[in-house]
Amino acid sequence: MAISKNEIAATMTRDQAARAGVISAPQAQEVITSNSKRLFGFTRKMLPPAGSLPTEPKLYIYSVSEYGDIVNLGPGFPLYEVKACPEGEEYGEPCVIPPIIFFEEAKVDVTEHTFHSGPQIVEAILKIGPGMNASWDRRKVGWFVSNTNPPSAEDVRRATTLYIQECTRLLQEGNRYASANQLLEINETHRRAAKYLGQKVEWSKPLQQMRECPGCGENVRVGIIWHAFPMGCGYIFDRESYEEHFAPAPAHQKPAPPQPTK
Ligand SMILES: [Zn+2]
User: Fold this and answer.
1) 155: helix, coil or strand?
2) Helix or strand run (H / E) with residue 212
3) Residues 152 and 146 sit within 8 Å (Cβ to Cβ)
4) How far, in Å, CA of 140 to CA of 159, rounded?
5) What is the pTM of this model?
6) Per-domain residue ranges of the chain
7) How far is the CA of 237 from the centre of ligand 1 (A)?
8) β partners of residue 62
């Protein structure tokens, strides 16, 4: 009866084992390595060696606004971070896009390294080009692409003009909602637009939390001490603070506090 390979490995010298068809650990490692392209039923293709891909010309995405974001183009892609423009600067740090990007994707039982050009990646990040809805265009939030680092003054000016146009549109929209009393339609993008344009508008602060006054049923701000006269019904929410700030004090202690005005 033939002896098992385990027995051979345990009892023979390495040469004897090799002749008997048993491989050593280093040899096994070698076989695994040479076959490791085949994993879980997928045949993986190897990337071209690092250093063999061109790295120029790069493209640069900048933001002229307070909008920055980490953009995820999907599985297989690296994350791209477009950095917000710091306050007082013209534009932020660039997001650098190399000229060629490979990403690995599964096709039936083979993974492919699909090629994408720098300009294609830029279009995907800015959400422009074929198949993209115009309203997604990230140039409206102040992003732009440049061939150079730093960008040309002309590119910065064009991007800023576009962003100001969009902020103006949002400011007008916010004003329309406010005048129609549709305050819930006003969101952070409207407020940021007003702030960027330096416009002080009624609606530029987030909505204050409201509650119903138990005294009269009117909506009042959360945290008020009392529903002050003459607009309010006089309901006291916080007796202690009310006594301290509003209740008439004896004449010898302190002068009567000023009546709160709305
Ligand atoms: Zn009230």
Assistant:
1) helix
2) strand 210-212
3) yes
4) 8
5) 0.62
6) 59-151, 155-204, 208-262
7) 10
8) 144
pLDDT tens-digit readout, 209-244 = 778 899 999 888 888 899 988 888 999 999 998 988
CB 171 within 8 A of CB 197: yes
* Centre of ligand 1 from the C-alpha of residue 221, in Å: 11
- CA 253–ligand 1 middle distance (angstroms): 30
Q: How far is the CA of 223 from the centre of ligand 1 (A)?
A: 13
Distance (Å) from CA 35 to ligand 1 centroid: 79
CA of 219 to the centre of ligand 1 (A): 8
Length of the chain counted residue by residue: 262
Angle, nearest 10°, between helix axes 188-196 and 153-179?
A: 120
Measured CA to CA, the distance from residue 194 to residue 198 in angstroms comes to 6
How close is the Cα of 145 to the center of ligand 1, in Å? 55
Q: Say which residue the tokens 């010298």 belong to.
A: 13
Sequence-ordered list of residues with C-beta below 8 angstroms from that of 214, at least 6 positions apart, any chain: 235
> Most distant CA pair in the chain: distance in Å?
117
What is the Cα–Cα distance from 4 to 56, expressed in whole angstroms? 59
Helix (H, G, I), strand (E, B) or coil at 37: coil
Q: What are the structure tokens assigned to 49, written together?
A: 């060696």
120-142 per-position pLDDT tens digit: 999 999 999 888 888 899 999 99
